[in-house]
Amino acid sequence: MRIWLNILLWTLLTCATAQNQKTLKVVTREIEREYRYQNEFLLEINAEKADIEIKVVDGHSVRLHLKQTAKDADVHIAEHDLKALHFVDKKERNRLYLHNYAQLQAGSTGLFSIINNKYIIEIPRNCHLRITNELGTVVIDGVKNTMRFNLNYCGLTLNNTEGQLFVDSRIGDVTLNDCHVDGEFITQNVNLKLQRVGGSYDLQCKYGSLSCLMNEQLTLINASLEQCETTLINRTGIDFSYAIDVNKGKINALDQTLKEKIKENAIKSSLQNKNNDDVGTVIIKSEYGDVNLY
């Protein structure tokens, strides 16, 4: 009798749970545009709640596919919220400006749906980029020109990029794979990962972490860190010049000779080496964080 009672209770609970669970209804709007490309072209994006993917293609145009989505258990709420999503594009000479935003209707108390704006953009390789995004992601492959990012609660991934790079990011992982850039980074609450990177990097990082897998073309890392766990991996066989100053933390190195060398190095001598292409230089000032060398 007790077994049957347990089975009955389990069945009733399962049915009640299934009844309370509602399938999300999805409504979408899709926009496709193509713009004529010109030399020294700047693509500027001002986005929110957006996943932005930029790919390099051959040709003389910029192609955009934007999918705006609202999800809610009540399809009427989703439809209402989708109407609040707007998109603006404006082209002036060699500048293209793209902007998505939400504008509430009169009397509306807010958006209740799950909102997303999915950009897929194809551009020529030498296009300049300036991107602002909040609550989303940015993924870029193959661009070889100036790139500027202002990000908040947003992840950034760059693959096989070259050129000048400026990143200001608050909360969100930033990853560079196989890139060769001259970069300036200001980050807070960010996990910064540099994988097989060349070029030079000026870093101001507060909270989060820094990891770098160095390659032969890395010329300079100049990092000012606060409460960041730092890991540097050198498998190149190159004898980089290190100057590491750690306060309220420690230097961990598998190679004791390297550790002693770091202690002897002065930042002044490393700064003198940074303009020498034959010597890769690593300068780190760290407050409240360990530096690990492998």
Describe the structure in your own words.
- With about 290 residues, the protein is mainly β.
- It has four helices and 17 strands.
- It has helices at about 1-20, 75-85, 255-265, 265-275; strands at about 25-35, 40-50, 50-55, 60-70, 85-90, 95-100, 115-125, 130-140, 145-160, 160-170, 175, 180-225, 230-235, 240-245, 250-255, 280-285, 290-294.
- The chain has a 17-stranded mixed beta sheet that branches.
Kindly summarize this structure in a few lines.
The protein contains 4 helices and 17 strands. The chain has 294 residues and is mainly beta.
What's the story with the biggest beta sheet? Answer: 17 strands, mixed
Oligomeric state of the chains present here: single chain
Helical stretch count?
Answer: 4
State the order of secondary-structure elements, H for helix, E for strand: HEEEEHEEEEEEEEEEEHHEE
What value does the Rg take, in angstroms? 25 Å
What percent of residues are in strands?
over 45%
Descriptive key words:
globular; mainly beta; 17-stranded mixed sheet; 17 strands; 294 residues
What's the layout of helices and strands?
Layout (H helix, E strand, L loop, with lengths): L1 H19 L4 E12 L5 E7 L1 E7 L4 E12 L2 H9 L1 E8 L2 E8 L11 E10 L4 E14 L5 E13 L2 E9 L3 E4 L2 E47 L2 E5 L7 E7 L3 E3 L2 H9 L2 H7 L7 E7 L3 E3 L1
Parallel strand pairs: 2-6, 2-8, 3-7, 3-8, 8-9, 9-10, 9-11, 10-12, 11-12, 12-13, 12-16, 13-17, 14-16, 15-17
Antiparallel strand pairs: 1-4, 4-7, 5-6
